Amino acid sequence: MIETGLFYIISYLFPSRGEPWPKKSRPAKSTTQWYIDIVLNAKLADYSPVKGCMVIRPRGYAIWERIRDEFDRRFKETGHQNAYFPLLIPMSFLQKEAEHVKGFAPELAVVTHGGGEELEEPYCIRPTSETIIWAKYKDWIQSWRDLPLLINQWSNVLRWEKRTRLFLRTSEFLWQEGHTAHETEKEAVEETLRMIEVYRDVVERYLCVPVVVGVKSDTEKFAGAVNTYTIEAMMQDKKALQAGTSHFLGQNFAKAFDVKFQTREGSLDYVWATSWGVSTRLVGAVIMTHSDDKGLVLPPTLAPEEVVIVPIYKNDNKVAVLAYAEKTLAALKAAGIRALLDADDSSSPGWKFAEWEMRGTPVRIEIGPRDMASEKLVMVRRDTGEKSFVAAADAASAARKLLDGIQTSLYERAVAFRDANTVKAGSNKELMDFFGAEGKGTADAHGGFAEALWCGSAECEAGLKAKVKATLRCLPLGHQEGVDGSCALCGAPAKHRAIFARNY
Amino acid sequence: MIETGLFYIISYLFPSRGEPWPKKSRPAKSTTQWYIDIVLNAKLADYSPVKGCMVIRPRGYAIWERIRDEFDRRFKETGHQNAYFPLLIPMSFLQKEAEHVKGFAPELAVVTHGGGEELEEPYCIRPTSETIIWAKYKDWIQSWRDLPLLINQWSNVLRWEKRTRLFLRTSEFLWQEGHTAHETEKEAVEETLRMIEVYRDVVERYLCVPVVVGVKSDTEKFAGAVNTYTIEAMMQDKKALQAGTSHFLGQNFAKAFDVKFQTREGSLDYVWATSWGVSTRLVGAVIMTHSDDKGLVLPPTLAPEEVVIVPIYKNDNKVAVLAYAEKTLAALKAAGIRALLDADDSSSPGWKFAEWEMRGTPVRIEIGPRDMASEKLVMVRRDTGEKSFVAAADAASAARKLLDGIQTSLYERAVAFRDANTVKAGSNKELMDFFGAEGKGTADAHGGFAEALWCGSAECEAGLKAKVKATLRCLPLGHQEGVDGSCALCGAPAKHRAIFARNY
Lengths: 504, 504
Description:
The structure is a homodimer.
Chain A: H1 4-13, H2 31-41, E1 45-47, E2 54-56, H3 58-77, E3 81-82, E4 88-90, H4 91-94, H5 98-104, E5 109-114, E6 117-125, H6 130-140, E7 149-158, E8 172-182, H7 185-205, E9 212-215, E10 227-234, E11 240-250, H8 252-256, E12 260-262, E13 268-270, E14 272-279, H9 281-290, E15 307-311, H10 318-334, E16 339-341, H11 349-359, E17 363-367, H12 369-373, E18 376-381, E19 387-391, H13 395-420, E20 422-424, H14 428-435, E21 449-454, H15 458-468, E22 471-476, E23 496-501
Parallel strand pairs in A: 3-7, 15-16, 15-17, 20-21
Antiparallel strand pairs in A: 1-2, 4-6, 5-6, 7-8, 8-14, 9-10, 9-22, 10-11, 11-14, 12-13, 17-18, 18-19, 21-23, 22-23
């Protein structure tokens, strides 16, 4: 470890202080390994002895709690209430909706024994809860007066996955699933769009992750849905991540579970439905979008601590420096800033700088005897490394300004990255060039979002997927007007503008 | 339904307004049925198509959210962090702690198939998470510097139950489980006691449910614990409800999972452990402790709405009365009171009175044209039915005072009920008389808490259980000094003071 006094001098001479360790070189390892290292080193999550399942460690869970609480607030604001339905679903329920069972059957975990006996009918662990919830809605909905029914559930779900990655794809994950029932098709479509807009707004503004909002192709939509709306984000390896989906289910589940209601006119009709969900995958999206070679980068909204204060002292000025740091801490807290003082004597300031950078704390305040003497302190932005000298009296307002700046700039940086890696592809050749030749398709150097005209055929989708592993991410909303030209894949007349990308 | 105008007159003439319906007579039905009716009518929970599992409806879940948030705040205040471990546990893990597997094996749900294939090793759904968590702690704990490790998890667990009751005993339930690791036995014991005290404090002060704090007998303790501390509450049918437990696990799980750490002295030692949990059962405890024949009674702390305003008007004064009610609502909200205005035109005020009483809202405000004219309003306490006339300008302060009074008085009423149904039994005959003759033992007329001296033998416990179905609930803390006398059950020299009761 570096001797504190010496480090203190060096760090004032060189602006790169805080990086006394060899900078990890991203090109030297794959984005995959870079991502895994951040998750493990920042103690966000860990592997578990259960196939495909992870342990969410306290720091990862604290980030999830902040994401969850913000969504929960927004769901309640839009009139939804939380409830809780059973973990287990009778296998026969899943079979009531033909498309639904086809989509989920290969991913099920099946409970065959309970209480020491073999069960008459096996249960599956919920992969999603439409079927168990609609079985109950049948009891709760009789008349238009019972509608709309606007329920959300926070829960764990399980989908047996072959290839998993911490946060981004795990067999068990935590999520919320909204399940709503409506009198009319119009109302249900409005709800579907309302919730994808809530998702967009929270993911863009709170998580600083820009997304494309669009509708899925029939190939990619939710099993049992009429339409699936999605928000698609671009990760740092230029792959797409489906960050949230909102499904218009039509009357499919009402018909499968025979949920009819008496209309205002006195007739009987099937109920119209939606469902929508986001999951702990969003923690992965945040990590993958903002982090750098020093480790995690967090938007201030999500950081367990927005500011960390690292005091720099020797034995003879320790008491004074710590008192000065405590005073700064109190001023930050009084201003409502989540701040922390790292007064641990067993590590050097330099070690702490690197440690808090790895953990993603948005702003670091350094306080040493010189700062104290001049009634100043040093603030360092985690995202840019930019350093500023601030009068101690202005600590709270300066920190708030810096934090707000980071929140804006993380988003803008991610938008710029996405835009720089998005092309309009007019031909098959352009698509092939963009995604890289066969076999090289997974290199970070290639790929991103390709916007191309599409004829609407599932064959064209499948063809591209087979060649370069790119899938149709969505038909972006607001970009479907005046489609005039031919499908980039087959040359037939185009029906839609589509985004193609490799994806998680 | 009752004509609004007529009802308005009648209700001013007779103080019993708000009860135009025949009062449900408790003696006419069992406490069990009374309890179930409240849960279903107040829409707190519902049965599900999954054996032994319930659906928690929005109102029940909102109460659980308030309980959960208060505990969560207290856990964080005492230095704990939340994390999340997998739902599934390899069967072999459970077998590593001999007592643990013996206790839980009969209650397991077993997953034998996943992703369309039979699993090499089956998983069980967690009945509690000690084993999966301690398997991970082995990776995380190397040195005394890693200790204490203070982790809590909010999750669902599943224990196959034969006889279930909404909230009070269900196969799947929601809970929190704290799992901590310590350097010394002393620290672990202190943690065990700290958490049972947090439980006592929240359950008594926030839920208004008085409890006896004590330690379990070997027969009744947690499978794998050295000691189990418990809080025991008395329900309205005089049965005991185990409302929360905190276990001192010694080094049992550290030995089972080989979790050793380097001590401050440089030697290797097994880690000391605790675990502790409360569950959605607490919602059942609240319902069962406070409710009456009109329905649910809620402590203000737990009520989704502390105050409901019911306006009483005719067509010609509707606009004015509603404006007056809105003004009152705004005043209450400005004072931080969770208040609601029930302006639904499709129900009469009388119907609303009964409805909100059934739902358990602590305070009802009635506002009619006469109240408006005299710049007053009427406040009615849910717990006592007591009615007071309050100047409109004082609405918020009067409501706050009333709510505080209800919070105190619900607790005191429950203490009085428990004390009135607690006896000191000195002999076998006194115990038999108290719990009722064999076969009549389940009648509400009998039973309660019997405090008796006990020799410490499991045979005496088993004997009483066989005769009158009463179990040893706990050895109350602070009541074990100067035990001098003979066991009420066998006459041998006594070692402890014990509480016996029938239980859920």
